[in-house]
Specification:
The complex is a heterodimer of chains A (about 290) and B (about 525).
Chain A (H helix, E strand, L loop, with lengths): L1 H21 L64 H4 L11 E6 L5 H9 L4 E6 L2 H17 L9 E5 L2 H8 L5 E7 L17 H10 E11 L2 H12 L4 E3 L2 H6 L1 H9 L1 H8 L5 E7 L6
Parallel strand pairs in A: 1-2, 1-4, 2-3, 4-5
Antiparallel strand pairs in A: 5-7, 6-7
Helix pairs in contact in A: 3-9, 9-10
Chain B lengths: L4 E7 L2 E6 L2 E5 L5 E5 L3 H7 L29 H13 L5 H6 L9 E6 L5 E6 L4 E7 L5 E8 L4 E6 L5 E6 L3 E6 L43 H25 L6 E5 L4 E10 L7 H10 L4 E9 L4 E5 L7 E4 L7 E6 L7 E6 L3 E6 L4 E7 L1 H8 L9 E9 L2 E8 L4 E7 L5 E8 L3 E8 L7 E7 L12 E7 L2 E6 L13 H8 L13
Antiparallel strand pairs in B: 1-2, 2-3, 3-4, 5-6, 6-7, 7-8, 9-10, 10-11, 11-12, 13-14, 14-15, 15-16, 17-18, 18-19, 19-20, 21-22, 22-23, 23-24, 25-26, 26-27, 27-28
The chains are: A alpha/beta (about 290), B alpha+beta (about 525).
Family (chain B): Belongs to the WD repeat TRM82 family.
Keywords (chain B): Nucleus, Repeat, tRNA processing, WD repeat
Organism (chain B): Corynascus novoguineensis
Amino acid sequence: MGGDKIKKDRRQKREDYRAAMRQEGISELPRKKFYRQRAHANPFSDHQLIYPPHPDQMDWSSLYPDYVIDEPHHQESPPSSEVPPDNSELAPLKPKRISKDVEVADIGCGFGGLLVALAPTMPDKLILGLEIRVSVTQFVEDRIKALRAQNQDARLYRNVGVLRANTMKFLPNFFRKGQLTKVFICFPDPHFKARKHKQRIVSTTLNSEYAYVLRPGGIVYTITDVLDLHEWIVQHFDAHPSFERIGEEEQEADPCVGIMRTETEEGKKVERHKGQKYVALYRRLEDPAW
Amino acid sequence: MILPFHLVKVCGDIVFAAQGCDIHSFSSSLRHISTWKYPALKADESNGASKETQDSPAPEEPPAKRRRVEPGAGSETVTNGEEAASENGRPKSKKAAQYDVPANERPFVQGLYATTDGRHLIAITGSDKTIWVFEHDGAGNLKQLSQRAMPKRPCSLTLTRDNRTILSADKFGDVYALPLLPSTTATPSSAPATQPPSRSSTPSTPASAPFKPQATELTVHTKRNLKALENQKISLDRKARQEQASQRPQFEHTLLLGHVSMLTAICVGTAPARTTSGDAAAGQEREQEGSPKVREYIITADRDEHIRVSRSMPQAHVIEGFCLGHEDFVSRLCVAPGGREELLISGGGDDYLFVWDWVRGQLLGKAGVLEHVKGVAGEEGATKVAVTRVFPCRWEGGVGVFVVVERVPALFRYELLKDNTLQHRETIPIPGNPLDVDALGTSGISPRLLVAAYPSTSSEGSSSPSLIALDKEEAGWRQTPVEDLSAGGGYNIGEIELQKILYSTESLRKLSDFD
């Protein structure tokens, strides 16, 4: 009884807090405790996800409002009577265009530590975090909103966005072939049981999709504190002909690696526990002749 | 009840039709020739009291996944299927469904495929996940060559253009390549379990190293987790070794590619090799050949609206593109025949069929299905469609595409016009709901159609034929029922259960109230 009441109060508090955060003009950073969610999500189930049927139909304007192109009146193609009505189905309403494409993706961005740290270091690139958990996505949204408000004058954090998505299923719905230059996979769910290995975010079959959205020369960054998972990642990327491991020297020289080690939420946690962190970087190779 | 024919496959002038777990052959004049019976059924019958479903009839198969079966179920449910289903009503959740007796526990033939020369017939059976290869003597007699149980249930398969390799797309989202005829030199049973016989330039899952604990004290912190880790160390080593030995199929198979959602269809398309490639060696190779090289691609569709185009072996790891635009599941793919291989037609849970330039991943057009289904079922009777067959064939000098929609008693004929649009031409009423369609005969301007249908029962209790031949005549369609094989339908199954097996496409649709 008492437990129920506490639970209810807590839920109410969460809701109230989040509602307050959503109000305009709040520039206070959100607090994690109101956004916690179970650390695992089943990537095979049909969550109520929103995703575009095709990358061209993705509306990025709400994520990156500063980059929206002001188009006079959406009248690129004058409505002519020759076009059969069927054509409108073929080319559904075009979303507002933005001046840049997303080039950097953080798959499973969690509470957004990496996004927030990366944003100022690559101000001319659009960065997107993808997260499957609803509450956590909301936290990152609120966090970005607050950071934008706090840094109004410097116009920082305009280049980061977050989306709720199941990337294992819907990565090609968001990104065209070769659109990305960097993909981050930081501290993914280790899925220890052999039966659950198919749920791991890295596998030879999924690596083909990462290769698809990455342009040749693009880099996949991986980091984990689980040695076994690290070995799995290395094995599976090594086995994939579209990727080549980046040597230690180049790896350590990459500023993103440092950020990934120290700025991700999970990275900080591992630091506190004095755990190990294992990093592997892979470069997307050109496809062989066909 | 008598089982209907649910699959038809024409092999030269022989017609194969699947009825439950059996495959019958008919001559071109539709006289019955022979029957192949699923071998495990006899064992099942004699073993009536078994509580565990006999999932793996093949001795070479890995042990089947254990399923939870209600006490006293097993083969008893064969007779009580209807009662059991109606008693429980609709399962409320996925969990509840799991504890129900699985409806498709019987190894129904789920797919029939043939090599282009008609010398081999390939069948998929459902619950035992098995791919069967038969030698066909050209006269309707089958000789079973191999029986291979896949790791997961195959949903669809196709053959590469050289007819030597089977590409099997499964429920887990993976595509495996298997040789049509396993090489005789291989001794699969002696192959070490840790080293799968699969190999190609396409990465396969690396063989797992000797088992070691997966977490360490460094990565696990809470008391409970530490304890769990301890237990894991003790017990998993032995267990993992057992699993490794048993789970890998003992025959040559290669993982080519995979989606994360259930695959529903697979086909192979060909396109001229790229001329833009700057690779000098490749260019020379082409010149030496004299004629432009043709490249093969694997096209796969899944329940999550994707159609993926990958290169074929040995570069199946390269995704060339996607055909995106479906807003519900895709259940059927076909590449247009008659020199128009660059066109792909897809159908599924959307109200339209889609026509694609699959090489460039471009949507060329859509053709309405729902509007024509409404013409049969009434404006109120149909709100959504589940396309179960998209069958292209030569038709009156052009390309005809016959479409079957689940639970709709008609066949829809479309024509693929020269400008790549798909035009609905006619709706052919069928007594009963069509389940499959194929075409027989190459002479004449339009072939004879063979339709397998779920019979409808009239008020007098007589039911319509299950296998029907359709001939286009000036006056209309002449329908000839094919001889009834009531003897072949000798086992009992509840109607509801049967419908669950034969009408399985609509269940691919996602529930909208689920998060």
